[in-house]
Design a protein that fits this description.
Length: about 250
């Protein structure tokens, strides 16, 4: 496993470190930028071989694989003047920052690979989209749950837009809980039931022999409760509104 540097130690950077240090896995040396100092310091205290560097240039100099996990709006300022030799491999986790854009910022000929790891990499359960395919980067994310290489940045941006639906799912569950509470159910009982209900539904996603539309059909009885909510709430206009929101996000990412 390569020596890995992380510039921008937020939630995803932290999850990557925790996944790499999960029991039974490879343990590369990890070098963290001081950006996100509290999280970086906590990780260095928890894990042997994880060090906080004095600055971003030291992260790059000590690493073979450099993961950049900054906020999109901060990256030009944070990376200004950074020297990245061509023998490094750069992994770009920033949504909406294309390979050519980052290459201009870094002024490097090093390979640059985009990736979309999710917090579940800490449990090695996240499939990470990569673009373009690169043996070192794909192997890194295979270690963390699986790599899904895609052929170009147009396809990559579609997957990036899909990640924007995660909190809407949590808000949907919170709305169900709030509705039940409004009908006299104790809040803790309502939340416990909704969590259990959808935790079990989530487990069915592990059955990859059935496509998603088949899973939906298998959970419905004709003219039953599930079919009623799907056809009256998640109707064609509702589905079209979701697709429109995704189209708008995709346009911004492009």
């Amino acid at each position: 496993m390569q020596r890995i540097g992380i510039i921008g130690v937020g939630e995803i950077g932290k999850a990557v470190v925790e996944g790499l240090r999960k029991e039974g896995g490879a343990s590369p040396e990890v070098f963290l930028s001081p950006r996100g100092a509290r999280t970086a310091g906590e990780l260095s205290e928890r894990f042997e071989g994880v060090r906080v560097c004095a600055g971003n240039q030291e992260v790059v100099d000590r690493s073979e694989v450099v993961i950049i996990a900054l906020r999109r709006q901060d990256h030009r300022e944070a990376l200004a003047g950074l020297k990245v030799d061509d023998d490094k491999t750069v992994v770009n986790l920033m949504a909406g920052v294309a390979v050519d854009d980052l290459r201009r910022t870094l002024a490097t000929g090093a390979p640059i690979v985009r990736a979309i790891p999710l917090p579940a990499v800490r449990e090695r359960r996240s499939v990470t989209v990569t673009c373009p395919s690169h043996p070192v980067v794909d192997a890194l994310f295979d270690e963390l749950g699986g790599a899904l290489p895609v052929p170009d940045e147009d396809a990559f941006n579609v997957f990036s837009a899909l990640t924007g639906t995660l909190t809407a799912h949590y808000a949907y569950l919170a709305t169900l809980t709030s509705w039940a509470t409004g009908h006299g159910i104790a809040p803790d009982a309502a939340e416990r039931y909704v969590r259990g209900l959808f935790r079990n539904v989530g487990r069915s996603l592990n059955d990859e022999t059935r496509p998603l539309h088949q899973l939906a059909a298998d959970h419905e009885t004709p003219k039953g409760n599930n079919e009623r909510i799907r056809t009256t709430w998640f109707d064609p206009s509702n589905a079209a509104a979701l697709e429109s929101a995704l189209d708008g996000l995709l346009a911004d990412l492009e």
